[in-house]
Amino acid sequence: MPAPVLYSFRRCPYAMRARLAIQSSGMQVELREIHLKHKPEHMLEASPKGTVPVLILPDGRVIDESLDVARWALAESDPQGWLAPFEADREATDFLIARNDGPFKHHLDRYKYASRYEDVDASEHRAEGLKILEDLDARLTETGYLIGPRFTFVDAAIAPFVRQFRIPDKDWFDSLPLPALIKWVHDFMESDRFASVMKKYPRWEGGEGEPFPAAP
Fold it and tell me: How many CB atoms lie within 10 A of CB 72?
């Protein structure tokens, strides 16, 4: 049976989240790295909204939301127990991911890409995003992870977005008085799992894509 096909864009935090879950599951997909300005017709036929990730299963089903791609992969196989927070504290897990994908992403976009919006004060959105980071730091202080004693999907779902928030002014971010958060995001960026999902692949030009995760 052919492998599922994953359309992805390396730097997109949503696609990164999906790749992290697939990697953790031990599943393998055919990765097709795209350029967001030149989206393949096959991807748009499968998912007209034109965002990544897009997963096409061998039976033709299409999954085109990052959380759904992650849930598919981890439902198939979860050897590292990444779904444990959903069982241990579903309310907190759902809250953290919803806040990240809603308010935090809203402020992140208007801080990092302020020039794309009219009448936006990047500093105001940075301040609002910082309030959420302060709460994350408090949650990380006890165990070093967002829920429970180890890295799970809730960490993988949120860390790529916090990394994006750091990019516009790394010195400012790294000097924040949020030691647990700073350690958590740096540990994530320096991890083997991050290096693996951030491997550079050639842009897909048709034909067969690349196996992901790549063989060690």
Answer: 19
